[in-house]
Amino acid sequence: MDVLISGTFRSDPGLPLAANWAASNQFVQPALGRPISGGLPTLTINLIAPGDVWGDRVNELDLRIAKILRFGRTRTNVGFDLYNVLNSSAVLSYNQNFVPNVSVAQADACC
């Protein structure tokens, strides 16, 4: 028969998500009772607890079917490969920055 069949299945968890907010001193100072240390203009605050929210799981299935052909004293392996059979459309990268809503009036006034 000389038929070869193989496959690989891989399942990876999604990336942990964050909502990083670059909070200015006007928001941080009332909460701390003092300005941000080192004279920095902003402080990065993750609004989501680490490990609470995760991205989509990534599943991948690869298959190979091959036939061994013999010609006298030689043999040849002819195969057909299928990659990413499940054709997953999971998101692989995320924008981890949080930007608060700015009203149109504020946006027009700033420029």
Explain what this protein looks like in three dimensions.
By secondary structure, this protein is mostly beta strands. The protein has two domains: about 1-15 and about 55-110, no CATH class; about 20-50, no CATH class. It is built from two helices and five strands. The protein has helices at about 25-30, 105-110, and strands spanning about 5-10, 20-25, 40-45, 60-70, 75-80. The chain has a three-stranded antiparallel sheet with strand order 1-4-5, with no helix packed on it. The chain is rod-shaped and about 85 Å long. The chain starts with a strand and ends with a helix.
Which descriptors apply to this entry?
rod-shaped, mainly beta, 111 residues, 2 domains, 3-stranded antiparallel β-sheet, 2 helices
Low-confidence stretches: none
Q: Largest sheet, order of strands side by side?
A: 1-4-5
Beta-strand portion reads 35-45%
- SSE ordering: EEHEEEH
The general outline is rod-shaped
* Structural class based on helices, strands and sheet pairing: mainly beta
- Separation, N- and C-terminal Cα atoms: 74 Å
Characterize the biggest β-sheet: 3 strands, antiparallel
List the helices and strands and how they pair.
Elements lengths: L2 E10 L7 E5 H8 L9 E5 L11 E14 L2 E9 L21 H7 L1
Antiparallel strand pairs: 1-4, 2-3, 4-5
